[in-house]
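Preliminary data (for renewal application), flavin-adenine dinucleotide complex.
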Amino acid sequence: MSADVRDEYDLVVIGTGPGGEGATMQAAKQGQRVAVIERQGQLGGACTHVGTIPSKSLRYMIFRMTDTNANPVFRAAGASLHLTFPELRQAARTVIQRQVDMRKGFYERNHVPVIPGQARFVDEQTVEVLSASGLSRRIRAKAFIIAVGSRPYRPPQVDFSHPRIFDSDTILDLNFTPQSITIYGAGVVGCEYTTMFRNLNCKVNLVNTRSKLLEFLDDEIIDALAYHMRDRGVLIRHNEVLDKIEASDNGVVCSLQSGKQLKTDILLWANGRTGNTHDLGLENVGLAPNSRGQLDVNQDFQTAKPHIYAVGDVIGFPSLASAAYVQGRCAAGHRFQGDVDRTMIDSIPTGIYTSPEISSIGKTERELTAARVPYEIGHAQYKNLARAQITGQTVGMLKLLFHRETLAILGVHCFGATAAEIVHIGQAIMAQSGEANSLKYFINSTFNYPTMAEAYRVAALNGYNRVF
Ligand SMILES: Cc1cc2nc3c(=O)[nH]c(=O)nc-3n(C[C@H](O)[C@H](O)[C@H](O)COP(=O)(O)OP(=O)(O)OC[C@H]3O[C@@H](n4cnc5c(N)ncnc54)[C@H](O)[C@@H]3O)c2cc1C
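Predicted structure:
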């Protein structure tokens, strides 16, 4: 525990993932008496222990290995790395511990007590905290922020106790490198693991219950991702519905209602998540989650009870660590300062760590067309960038959507190496008001050479040449 625990607070936050941390730090910085409750032995939430951090560490290790093996110079010199899934997974442990230690420091420096245990509402001003040792204590607060996150959705007909069937939490404990995998669910997590396993040379079936991958993205990016996955040998099945999954000692058979059967070494279930609301005592405060365990909130993250806020995965889309953190800050800001600057919540970029990665912000072509906005497009192909040629990361593109009259940037969509980094250059210009948000910024700025950021100049010139 990082500070003395009292019985009454201005704010009690439930959960220490990014949502809870953002809320707690914002309230603490404003001099409020705030405490946070966490049921896991360690701080950081699913984000640090089973979500963002371990998956991105694993992805990085796979990338380093495949990149080394694919490099002709290293290959000629005899380099050939063949690490197993568990060996590659090791790297995440150090990162997780560093993250936990760093976060612990945040709470300590801000004198915020971290109360260990499972929180449960008793009434509208009180939560009961049940510790792992069975002790319980009641804490009262004037306001609460629920940041309890989510867990993988587990349909009853799938036997998750079978050693060949995994979800996104348990896949991290996989103790061998499979030769083949079926991934059921083609959302962000499903697509990210698809490219990771394919880079490990596994045969991958990706089963999508929808007609396209990641429908919220710009169509051209979706097409590029699907093309690239197929080009790498991934078998994508769209518009499928599960019939049954049968696992045995020598594999898993995934039968689809269309009559198709897919047999692989293991199956990763990546179809949806459920909010962690079932044991929160919400019935005692008159709140009811939806069928996915999520809570409805208004634009200020208040539930139907104005002093009880909810942020992060427990409120659903976009279910990103980045979004959870700013939502937490905004909820605490709203509670203690009144109004909040909505810019950071209204304009959340998407970062998808497939390989190559994807990132976007702003409108898609589909949205602009539907809204009849006169826009133009500028493209930069990675294969034409010197930096991409040097690093060998030539698959990808940057695409700028801009207003053909005002030249204001309306959307930035990137598919390829460092997409999640370079999107923020476009974000910074898009966030400017009036004439400062202009395609001309990219045309008239000098970029370091060679850089991936230079794609902005190439795309801007490409688009500007279309304007007449
Ligand atoms: C495989 C995977 C990869 C991901 N990759 C990315 C990525 O690259 N980028 C990105 O932005 N997002 C990513 N995400 C999503 C990201 O992890 C989540 O959006 C983020 O963790 C949500 O934060 P949160 O604070 O809402 O909840 P969480 O991080 O889940 O934290 C909730 C905390 O609340 C605690 N808790 C729950 N109930 C109680 C209770 N009753 N009492 C006390 N404590 C409780 C839990 O123990 C947990 O510590 C990924 C997710 C997965 C699964």
